[in-house]
Design a protein that fits this description.
two-stranded antiparallel ribbon, single chain, Growth Hormone, Chain: A, two-stranded parallel ribbon, globular, mainly alpha
Length: 469
C-alpha cells in the first residue's frame, strides 16, 4: 500500500487549505479540497480527514480572532490516558470486559423474534452512541447506556404480553452503546504499537458474552421461571454500572484536556490556555447541522472509507452465519435428548475456539511488533500486517460450518462431531473480529469509535435479519 508514512491507511489524505482539485488515495476514496470539508462532496457529509482538516482550520481561525491559545495533546502527555499506570489501564479494561458481557449476554435469552429485534435495534444503537462518546466523553455515554439498558429490562420481565417484551427488547437494543465506545477507550489509553493485547482482551469479552448468556440461561430455563433470566441480567447490570461509575475515570483525550486547561488557568501556570470546547461555544459545536453530522459519522465512515466498508462486511457476514448456526442448536441437540442446560453447555466448544484463537494471536502480536520496529516507515508493517493471521484463520468459518452440517443428523452419529465444528467456528469468529477491530483502532485513532461502529452495525444488523428469516 503506497503513500507517505504516518498517514492513515484506507482514509483520505489531507489536501492543502487552498487545494480544490480532486484525487484518489490508496484505498480508492475520492480526495476533495478544503472547500468541501462540510460534506458537499457526499450525500451524507464529510469524510474523516475532511472533518479533521475543517476543525484544524477553524481552530487556527478562532485563535486569531479570540487571542486564546488552544492547548495541544503534546503539552500534557503525562496527564492523559496514555500515561495511566499499567494496573489502572487493565482495571479499566476489566470493568469494560464486564460491561461488554452484561450488554451482549442477554442477546440470546429470548425467543428468536426477540433476539432478532434486539440485534437489529442494537446495530443502530451502537451507531447512535459511538460518535457522542467522542464529543461528550466515554464515561457519561456508557453510564447513560447502562442505565437505559437496565431500565428496559423491566418491560421484558414484567410485560403482560408478547408485544411488551418486543418493545423492551427494541428499546434495550437502541440503548446499548456496545463495543464501539469501549473499543474507543483502547485508543484513548494505548499507542497503536501497544494496543493489541488490550484489543484481544476486550474482543474476547464481546464474543464471549454472546455464549455466556445461553450457558447461564440454560440452567435458568431448566430450574427456574424464564423471567429469572432477565432478573439476573438486571442484577448484574446494576452491579456493573455501579463499579463503572465509582472506579473508571474518563479516558477521552478532549474531555481530559478540558479539565487540564481549567486547572492550569486556575493555578496561574498558563492563564491564556483554553481547551477546544471553551473556544468554540456549545451552539457552534452542536448546531442542528453539526448534530446530524455527528450522528451520521459512523455511517459516513462505513460508506466512504472503503477499508471500513470491506472489513465491516466481512465481519458482518461472518457473524450472521454464526448466529444462524447457533439458532439451530436446540433443534440439533434435541436429537440426542439434550435438556435445556445441556443445550446451553453445548456453547462451551465455541468458547474453547475463542480461547484457542486468542492464544494463536499472541505470537502474531510479537511478530508484528518486531516488524514495526524493523520497518517504522513501512505502512504494511505498521497497519496491514495486523491482518496477516486472519488470512489463515478466516477459512475456519466455512470449514467449521461444513463439519457442523455433516455431523448434526443425530444418532448413531456422536454429538462430539458437531461440537468440534463449533470450536472451529469459534476460532474464525474471534479471528475475524479481532483482526478487523485491531486494524481499525490503529488506523483511525481518536475516531476509532465511529470506525468500529460500522463494523458493529454490519455484524448485528446482518445477524438480526438472518436470525429472523
Amino acid at each position: 500500500m503506497g503513500g507517505d508514512p504516518g498517514k492513515w491507511p484506507g482514509s483520505l489524505q489531507l489536501p492543502g487549505a487552498n487545494d480544490h482539485d480532486g484525487g484518489v488515495n490508496s484505498s480508492g476514496s475520492t480526495v476533495v479540497g478544503a472547500d468541501f470539508a462540510h460534506g458537499r462532496d457526499t450525500i451524507i457529509g464529510p469524510t474523516v480527514d475532511q472533518t479533521i482538516a475543517a476543525r484544524e482550520a477553524n481552530s487556527e481561525k478562532r485563535e486569531e480572532e479570540t487571542r486564546k491559545r488552544e492547548i495541544t495533546e503534546n503539552e500534557c502527555e503525562g496527564e492523559l490516558g496514555f500515561a495511566f499506570p499499567g494496573w489502572k489501564r487493565w482495571w479499566i479494561l476489566t470493568v469494560i470486559f464486564l460491561v461488554q458481557t452484561e450488554e451482549f449476554g442477554v442477546s440470546l435469552q429470548a425467543a428468536r423474534a426477540g433476539a432478532a429485534v434486539f440485534l437489529i435495534t442494537y446495530a443502530f444503537g451502537c451507531e447512535l452512541w459511538a460518535p457522542w462518546s467522542e464529543e461528550f466523553g466515554r464515561k457519561p455515554v456508557l453510564q447513560a447506556s447502562l442505565f437505559l439498558v437496565n431500565i428496559w429490562t423491566l418491560p421484558v420481565a414484567l410485560g403482560p404480553n408478547f408485544a411488551s417484551v418486543m418493545v423492551g427488547r427494541a428499546l434495550g437494543g437502541l440503548s446499548t452503546a456496545g463495543g464501539s465506545v469501549t473499543l474507543g477507550m483502547i485508543a484513548d489509553m494505548y499507542e497503536s504499537d501497544h494496543q493489541q493485547y488490550a484489543v484481544a482482551y476486550i474482543v474476547f469479552s464481546s464474543v464471549g458474552g454472546s455464549i455466556l448468556g445461553p450457558i447461564v440461561g440454560g440452567f435458568v430455563e431448566q430450574y427456574l421461571h424464564w423471567q429469572w433470566t432477565i432478573w439476573i441480567q438486571l442484577i448484574f447490570g446494576v452491579v456493573v454500572q455501579l463499579i463503572h461509575l465509582s472506579t473508571v475515570p474518563e479516558t477521552r483525550t478532549t474531555i481530559m484536556l478540558n479539565k487540564i486547561t481549567r486547572k492550569r488557568r486556575t493555578s496561574g501556570q498558563d492563564p491564556n490556555v483554553y481547551c477546544p470546547d471553551e473556544i468554540a461555544s456549545f451552539w457552534d459545536r452542536f448546531a442542528l447541522k453539526e448534530l446530524m453530522y455527528t450522528w451520521l459519522k459512523p455511517f459516513r465512515m462505513f460508506l466512504t472509507e472503503l477499508i471500513v466498508l470491506t472489513l465491516s462486511l466481512l465481519s458482518g457476514f461472518s457473524d450472521a452465519l454464526i448466529f444462524m448456526c447457533i439458532q439451530s442448536f436446540v433443534l440439533v441437540y434435541e436429537q440426542w435428548g439434550f435438556n435445556a442446560y445441556q443445550v446451553g453447555l453445548s456453547f462451551i466448544p465455541i468458547g474453547v475456539g475463542y480461547v484457542f484463537a486468542w492464544i494463536l494471536f499472541i505470537p502474531a502480536f510479537k511478530r508484528n511488533e518486531k516488524a514495526r520496529q524493523r520497518k517504522p516507515d513501512d505502512e504494511h508493517a505498521q497497519y496491514e500486517s495486523r491482518l496477516d493471521l486472519l488470512l489463515w484463520l478466516a477459512p475456519c468459518l466455512p470449514i467449521g460450518l461444513i463439519i457442523f452440517a455433516w455431523t448434526n443428523f443425530g444418532p448413531p452419529i456422536h454429538w462430539i462431531g458437531t461440537m468440534f465444528g463449533s470450536a472451529i467456528i469459534g476460532i474464525a469468529n474471534y479471528a475475524i473480529y479481532m483482526a478487523t477491530i485491531d486494524y481499525m483502532i490503529c488506523a483511525y485513532g481518536p475516531y476509532s469509535a465511529s470506525a468500529t461502529g460500522g463494523n458493529g452495525w454490519a455484524r448485528d444488523f446482518l445477524a438480526g435479519v438472518l436470525v429472523r428469516s
